[in-house]
What does this fold into?
Amino acid sequence: MSSWLDYTINGLIVGNVYALVAVGLALIFGVSRLINFAQGSIYLVGAYIGWVAVVQLHTPLPLTIIVVAAAAAVVGLIIERFGLRPLQNSVRIAPLLATIGISFVLDQLVMLTFSPNPRALPSQLPDVRFQVGGGTIGPLDLLIAGVGLTSALLLFVFLRYSKLGWAVRAASQDRDAAMQMGVDVNRVNQAVFGIAAALGGVSGMLVGMYYNQIDTAMSLQATLKGVVAEVVGGAGNVPGAVIGSLLLGLVESYGVAVFGTSYRNLFAFLLLVVVLVLRPNGLFASARQAPPEPLTGTFIAPSRPVRIPRWALLAAAAIFAVLPFFPVSFYVLQTLINAWLLGMLALSLTLVAGTMGQVSLGHAALLAIGAYTSALLSLTLSVPVGLAVIGGGLMSAALGTLLISPSFRLRGHYVSIATLAIGEIVSLVILNWESVTRGPIGISGIPPLSLFGYDLISPSSIYWFSFAVMVVLALLQGRLLGSHLGRSFRAIRDDDIAARAYGLSLNRYKSLAFIFGGFAAGVSGGIAAHLYSYINHETFNTQQSILALTVVILGGLGNVVGAIVGAVALVGLPEVFRIAAEYRILIYGIVLLLLVRFRPQGLLGTI
Amino acid sequence: MAEQHNSMLSLRGLTRRFGGLTAVDAIDLDLARGELISIIGPNGAGKTTLFNLVTGLDRPDAGSVSFEGQDITGLSPERLAAQGIARTFQLGRVFGNLSVMDNVLIGAHTRLRAVKPAVPVIGPLLELGLALLRPASVKAEEERLREEVKAILARFGERLLPRIDQPAYSLSYANRRRVEIARALALKPRLLLLDEPTAGMNPTETAEMQALVAELKAEGLTILLIEHKLEMVMRLSDRVIVMDEGKKIAEGPGEEVRTDPKVIEAYLGHGLSGTAEQESAA
It folds into this structure.
């Protein structure tokens, strides 16, 4: 009995922390219809500022909280002013991509400043436990509850009684009407981002104290949990976000009680997927909403794609094909092999995100499915590696499409959330399904690539193999885009309502896009598994998903040649300039931000 | 019953509520084959919501829609398109990044046969395979449809044909409306719903559009038209239905409807009927 009470208290406390993140997300969504993927990074920044204050400056607790809130608010204001305000009149995908880019830049800056090693964040509170009924509660629990309640009260007073609070509520009900009535939307956005960031920063600090540990992996987890709570409560619904957070905290806590700690996140993401499928507007949304008004403007940046003459493409392909005959170093070949593997992933993502408009943030999961399938087929069933790789592609196509299918009726940002969550679910299933995937130990001794009985060991043979596979996939994709399917995908992306009115089934065509794209990504993952010879649940992570997204934006959404050019550029240029590995992700994030701001159509143009 | 048999589209007690607002309130309507009915009424009268209910983009709270004697209430827009119901949208919903040709080809989507084998379960996979392999039958179908699209675009004179490969976002507003209508015609509709086809067009463009709609009607197409330009409504319509606040307040031949005091009141509010009569007589 007592332990159940403990789990309940724990669930409510953790829920309280999630609420601080989720309320910020809900405020921002309410005003600007944007899911701020950088919210978790502010939470991370808050935790580290708290660490500096507590450990280095020895500030007393109340001052620490104020310092963290103020510093995080400044970060929020900077994000709003320089990251998002310039994008106000751009295409719908731009602010979404910008918050993703900002999140990566902030995380990397924190990591470079403080090193990725975990640090202890002492709470400065006495370590005593009070008996409450059958359970116990500590001063930190009370602090978290107190901060949660105080913030809720302050927010309520602000929204209810201050003039700016009225403006925020007006803008979230009807932005255009509010603007016409003279509400300064920029000020409203500033207020909302400042408040959201302050709450997020304090939340990060409290969590750090609660577990007495902070590390840079906190960011993505916080974003995910906050988004889950917010979506459960109904996007943009502030009280809903609080209830959703408490519910999420309890679900996780009870889940951990029954199944163990490694299942904590699995429950969170399953809750998200269930809510998205059954009640995409959240648990507390009114049953049925009026169909949205026709959208002016398009999802991706309109552009005229750069036409590359066929002879130039053939020439480039020929040069890359004969490259190993020339005295190039192993290092160059290795770099290009990585580029070809990334190119396959980018082909997949450019089809799904660019041509079909489903911005997937969990694309690495398709790599993982392909890699595990191919590795296990060749290891346990002794399937020839060439066939195993194809098997990996097919499994990725089938399983990936099946997993994503519940989110086919979602739009825009929701697709990104759902794919992010599904990516995490795949990774957690790989971690926990030990009888098949060997769990945290991973799979070692994966046989090398081979074709018709010949092992491909030499760098040039691996180079040719991966290049040939990528070229074949690219040609197939080009053919697909030229068929009626290409125009059907693009029609659904541009306006799914008009597409449906002309008989295009969203389920059918989204499935086909994911089947085709899933195959390319699965093949890429399969080849990678045989090259690495060892894989585990962390081999294919969110960083790869984001890298692929940056490649796709760089090349131009939906652009087949662009995906390959982007892959070569993003893999090759850091090598050319000898940029240290730890700075690369920072640079990818900055590239993404600059592209969204200054060349949203990418190098070769969107198609 | 006899009337119902004759009519292509019939609505019975069709109702849609948004919260406290009844956007469409117990509308009855019968549209005979080859007939053109215009729906007029002030902004917010529920005309577009009615279109959404007929084309499956929204579901009614009560009432029924039948098409060619079959109950189609609440069917999905995809199924209704396949039945031969095409529509245009009030604010324009062209596919911005698609060329004019591709926009109109999408209109012919429901008529694709060679590339969409009607095989259950594996149908979509076969469709993918055929799209990649492109056997002669698929190529021939595509070629035939492209020729058809050119013929449809030719109906708009030199407005669209020279821009056939341009993306729709680069077109003028009026041309986008034309692309929408071309797309609807590519479906080979049995019933065409036009939602304010001349919105934002100047008098010359309006006259062109009016001539086109008259042509379509002469060819025997059944049309439901929402339109604010009364002159065009009077010229084209067999009957006019007037909606206000979700309700049908008048129905009949154009001349009868335009002098109906209820209609004048709905358009111009109370106490202005005198001026309204002058205006409608003008």
